[in-house]
# Entry
Amino acid sequence: MACNGTFAQSSGTNSPYSRYGWGILEDESQGFNLGMAGAGLGMRGAHILNSRNPASYSAIDSLTFLFDIGASLSTANMSYNGTSVNPQSSTLNYVTAGFRIIPSLGFAIGLRPFTTIGYNFSSTTKMEDIDGYGEKNANYTYLGEGGTHSVYGGLGWNPFKNFSIGANVGYLWGDYSHTSYVIFSENTIQALRRYYTGNISTYTLDFGVQYTQTVNKNTSVNVGLTAALGHKFNGSANFINQKTSSTSIEGADSLSLKDVNEIPNMFGAGVVVNHKNKWIIAADYTIQLWKDCRSPQLVTENGIQSYKITTNAFSNRQKAILGVQFVPKPDGFRFRDHISYRAGISYSTSYYKVNNNDGPKTYLATVGVGLPIINQYTKRSIVSIAAEYKRVQPSISNSIKENYEKVKPTLVVIDYFQLIHYKNRYPKDDTEVAYIIKQLKINTSLLQ
# Structure
């Protein structure tokens, strides 16, 4: 038996591995840690919106409104049995905003994808001559699309010095569609077509704590812990099995399941070392306990196929991240003094299984810069750009290998309302510094 495969470009992730489980889990990096491979469970700051740990919201600066938006441009290389393609895609990664409500209490809200599904590939298999009429070809095609999204709101509170707690409450929703069919070169053999569809809809709840310890006057250490609650939830799954001829559907079976899905418990820990705001080193470890989560599967028992709820389709997912940031002179007066240079690496395992084997491992490396925006309205907004290389390495031989190169731009607008305020109400030649001096009635003679 011989086999060869081809790929076609599709939307979303462009990954054949997104046909397993809920699809490909999306990256959670934001503007502040984009070039650090997403490290930052312990990160906090006056101008940081860190949705990975809601305790960080308590550090948002007073009288400040933060708006953070990110996107990505991706080129992939997928290879299988000597065949390769280079699909491209672009997507909006996230949108989030936040501000301080009262002293020590910050708020944030956001929208981001949780998983994505997108693939279109086919293969041809030569079948042995078992009836004396020569070899026949079986042409297999696999299509998939869909995914899930999350909208959330959260609070972060600093009840006492150096310690903060927070929580995000959200809504997770989406749907999926997987289609597989086989057509034979001998038209007297019936074609087979299978559809798998379903929807996902549930709440999400995650918590975070952060603690800051000063080592000396130049160095501090932040520790962050997070936990997300897993639970079963309502959701439907449908399976349709059809036999078709060249002109009509000859027969079909349809099965539906209810309450089929479960979201896992998730835990994370991170540490950040900050030296003079010049050097920041961050390390994270997270684990997602998917192993015992329920999911709908087509299984064969005693030669009979059935569509049922199982708990053996997933594995626990682990991820380790190391990131670093360098700012030449945080208190400097020149533009180049405030550019943030970032780099990071990560390693993660898969939460899904491939034909009852462990899924592929993912290796990631990133570099990036954060460029301050300086004009008459603001000196604190930042454009971040990161380049990312990701390798998806299968655990078993003769499987699809994937390599991704991505460019991820983000924009963090700080004091958004103040920008509009300045632009609409004050003379064009009135600089931010002059306005502040006048409003605070500072005696300029003291500045001489």
